[in-house]
Amino acid sequence: MAKHRGRGMAAINYPIGLNLGGDPSQALVHSNPTGKFTVALSSIDLGQGMKSVTRQIAAETLGIPVDDVYVDTADSDTGPHCMGSFASRGTHRVGNAVIAAAKEARGVMMEAAAEELEVDAGDLETDGKGNIHVRGAPHRSITVKEVAIAAQFRQGRTISGRGIFLIPMSGVDPETGAMKPVTTYAHACLVADVEVDDETGDVAVLKMNSAYELGRALNPRMVEQQLVGGAWMGMSHALYETTEPYYPDRDHGPSDFNEYLMPGPGDIAPHDIAVLERPAADGPFGGKGPGEMCANPVLPAVANAIFNAVGIRIDELPITPEKVLRGLKSQGGAKPPQVPFGGPKPNGAARP
Amino acid sequence: MPKTPVQFRINGTDKAVFADGGQSLLDVIRREVGDTAPKYGCGQGTCGACMVLIDGEPHLSCILLAEMADGRSIETASNLDQGGQIHPLQDAFMTHFAAQCGFCTPGMLMAAKALLDKVPNPTREQVIDAISDNLCRCTGYEPIINAILDAAQNPSRRSA
Question: Do B128 and A224 touch (CB under 8 A)?
Answer without folding.
Answer: no
